[in-house]
Amino acid sequence: MEKTLAKKDFPQWVKKLTSWKIYLPKKDAGGRWNYAEADGEDVLETRQATLPPKTILFPQNEILLEFSKSRKGNAETLEVKEVLPPAEPTVVFGVRPCEAKAAWLLDEVFASEPRDIYYWMRRENTTLVGLACTPPPSDNCFCTSVEGSPHAEEGSDILLTDLGDKYYVRSLTAKGEALINAAKGLFEEAKPEDRKKVKAVHTESEKKIQRELKGARAVSEKLKTMFDSPFWDEEAMSCLRCGICTYICPSCHCFDINDEIIDTTPLRGKRVRTWDTCQFPDFTMHSSGHNPRPDKASRLRQRLLHKFQYFVQVYDKFMCVGCGRCITMCPVGIDIIKVLEKVRDHGA
Amino acid sequence: MAKIDTLKEEARKLLQDGKVKYIIGYGAGSNGWPAAPLFIKQPEDVDKLIWDPTCIHNLVRFLVDEKRRKGKEKPPDKRPVGIFVKGCDSRAIVVLLQEKFIERGDVYILGISCEKAGVVDDAKLAKKLAGKKVITIEVDDENRFVLTTAGGKIEVPVEELLAERCLECRANFPVIYDVLSGEKTKRAVDKPFGSVEKIESLPVEERWAFWKEQIDKCIRCYACRSACPMCYCDECVVDSIQLAVSADTTADEKAGRIKWIQRSAAPSENMIYHLVRAIHLGGRCIDCGECERVCPLDIPLRLLNKKLEKEAKELFDYEVGFDPDLPALISSFRDDDPQDFIR
Fold it and tell me: Å from A132 to nearest chain B CA?
């Protein structure tokens, strides 16, 4: 389904979606962009939020179950209650195409059998409305180097393209159509000249990407030979071993599960899934005290191998969408493009 | 702006003569921020060293890594590590010496004075540039930052773009060094604790609301502790990974290990984490501002540490990081302590 929507009617569309919870990128008081709930003054901008919409599909803290112990006389009973995510229809507007593509990658991990019910429930209830990037939201964007594009459709239910005074609205799924049908009167059928214009805008947007990693597939092959290379020690010298690069990454998805006690008498607690990261020393710490990834070098290596070797071997896709957040936000300037270029050219 | 030509020559000689294991300095970044930490082992790489007001990182933090690395080397390479330090960074070395975490012979200190300027604040700079890309930043003779962009030069009085902590810095030259570049210029500071006093002046409810909002944003990436040269504990209170496990350790014992702070990035847990960190830095934080700079959510963490710095100054007349021979504040006792309860 291909339609157009006058830009001035966008707030109307949002208003008509009364059965959905709505998020879109908003600027906070400190000037940072975040995915926040719609507040009646909603406009779309091509911005990169600090945290990707992964936070909506795969929240940092997810309660899996609650437990409590009770005692009657000498008999102790343990009650366990499953907690599922709220089944509320949700729309995220203005998703960067790379972020929607990241959701498509997360689907491989969480939505393939056996399905992760917590992720899947949120994913099924969420409609992602992508907005093609014109121009790229960051100087460190490199989606076109990792088989993506500023107008990629993977993962999105609708892709919007800014045509000046209107949006070109391409619906890609039934969820997307439902969103358009909820405000039918606002949309017009797309005309052939709109289609022509969209093509031109998309082609133009690809040219505006400023960073490039040449030969990403060759990098994947090369990585297979570099596991034991001293290269990683050199590259990791300046790493702080913080979790920024992975926590702000749209496709990183590692987690930990802990029982958190709320009360001890009587015992009451919850089992919580939280984000975890391969960059923390305790991520691979065994209870024996042995740590198979004992230093920063092995942890930096893990991040790159997971994204550019292991995931490619299993799913034939990069687990990096080229949003450039890890490059922009690394406090010591570790630049994944530069590191991978060095890998590619290593020993040449 | 201090020139580092003499320091570069010194660095080259140190490496040529094998006097240092390697040198930690600043080189060109590729992510849009002009400077990044640089590690040099070969004399010919010395030319990659740079010095400008974006050399914001406190490299002393890497001495913590070096100590761990040396601990694993067989036999350990005991040569010192060369390190470039600004005034604030040098005070971090002083604290590490006071605490006997390192010895003076472990480091060869290449000091650079910030003179009348300091380092730029990334947020203020981004605002000033309004989307333009900066190529170089220098300080001219009239104490202005000169920002060179593709569209020409922009001149700004240093005060406009300086990091907040530089505006409150009282000694913007290294207090300990082997070689020094630049003048030992003291900056006139009206209000060394101005930023804290602003928060202190708010009613308690507003202060609570302010901190609650800030701390709620935390995603517990631990960049603040990772960037901090004083956060060198082998086991941090948030991790509890060092549970000794034997063949007889039961599942209950493993599950029952003390967890001071839960893993959920919930408001209460975030708050405890940040308060524990702040308290552990009382009398130790030298206000390099790295915790706040690296925070991806812009939590003003420096204010917590600054508050304790102020307490140390007011209660004990203690200034952090000036004298390596002075006992550390929290591990010392004085007969003329003003507090009655301790006698």
Answer: 20
User: Does a structural domain hold residue B210?
Assistant: yes
**Helix (H) / strand (E) containing B246:** none
Please report, in tens digits, the pLDDT of each residue of chain B (343 residues total). 888 999 999 999 999 999 999 999 999 999 999 999 999 999 999 999 999 999 999 999 999 999 999 999 999 999 999 999 999 999 999 999 999 999 999 999 999 999 989 999 999 999 999 888 899 999 999 999 999 998 899 999 999 999 999 999 988 899 999 999 999 887 778 789 999 999 999 999 999 999 999 999 999 999 999 999 999 998 888 886 556 667 777 767 766 667 788 899 999 999 999 999 999 999 999 999 999 999 999 999 999 999 999 999 998 889 999 999 999 998 888 777 777 776 5
Residues of chain A in contact with residue B62, where contact means CB-CB under 8 angstroms, are 237-238
Alpha carbons within 13 angstroms on the beta-carbon side of residue B89 total 27
- Select from B62, B223, B264 the Cβ nearest to the Cβ of A331: B223
Domain that holds residue B293: 191-343
Please tell me the distance in Å from A10's CA to the nearest CA on chain B. Answer: 27
Interface size A-B, in CB pairs within 8 Å, comes to 113
Q: Which ipTM value was assigned to this complex?
A: 0.94
Q: How many domains does chain B have?
A: 1
CA–CA min distance B14, chain A (Å): 20
pTM, to two decimals: 0.95
**Cα diameter, chain B:** 71
Chain B residues inside the 8 Å CB shell of A258: 259, 262-264
Q: Closest Cα partner for B296 from B198, B196, B226?
A: B226
Chain A CA closest to residue B58? A332
Chain A residues touching residue B294 (CB < 8 angstroms): 240, 242, 244, 331
Sheet with A75-82, edge to edge strand ranges: A75-82, A61-72, A267-275, A255-264
Write down the H helix ranges in B174-289.
194-200, 204-216, 223-227, 251-255, 267-280
